[in-house]
Amino acid sequence: MTAFLPHIVEMLQHDDPDVMMKVLELFRNVQGHLTRDEAGPIAVLLEEQLPPLFEHVRLMGEPVPRR
C-alpha cells in the first residue's frame, strides 16, 4: 500500500468528484486491513490532503449566501 500511496494521494487532486469519492472509498477499505503502525502515517497524510476537498461544503445551519 505504501508504494502506491503517492499516486493515490495525487488522485485526490482530480477535478472529477466521482474519482475523488472512489479514492476515499479505497482508503476507507484499505485502512481496515492495516495495522495501527501502518495506518498512522497514511491517516496523517490524508489529514493534510483532505481539507481542500471540502472547502466548497457549507456547515449545517450556516446560512446560504444571497446574491
Tell me what the structure shows.
The protein has 67 residues and is mainly alpha-helical. The protein has a domain at 5-43. Helices cover 54% and strands 0% of the residues. It has 3 helices and no strands. It has helices at residues 5-11, 17-31, 36-49. The radius of gyration is 15 Å and the shape is elongated.
Average pLDDT rating: 76
From the N-terminal CA to the C-terminal CA, the straight-line distance is 46 Å
Compute the number of helices. Answer: 3
The general outline is elongated
Instruction: List the quaternary state of the chains.
Output: single chain
Strand content: under 5%
| Gyration radius from CA atoms, angstroms | 15 Å
Q: Which spans have pLDDT < 50 for at least 5 consecutive residues? A: none
Largest sheet: none
The percentage helix is 40-55%
Order of helices and strands: HHH
- Summing up helix and strand content along with how strands pair, one would put the structural category as mainly alpha
Kindly state the number of beta strands.
Answer: 0
